[in-house]
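Structure tokens please, single chain.
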Amino acid sequence: MQIILRNVMEDYVILTLDRMLESMDCCKCEHCRLDIASYALNRLPSKYVATTQGELMTKLCSMDNQFEAMVMTEITKAATVVAQKPRH
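Here you go.
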């Protein structure tokens, strides 16, 4: 098995953003989606792990409620900023 180095925060932000996007009042195009993710990721701590591909989802699912709230807060802030000045 190949061991990879991953920032699980990136995966977690994308998963959470995709869940939240439906209820958000902002553009949902790929450009804005990635801008929101980038903005949030630049304000959240990195969470690098050395893992096999199969263990990655297990690590993502083990995040606690406080962690989830922090990610959701940053995504919400990011969506507000991007909605005010979309790049398209």
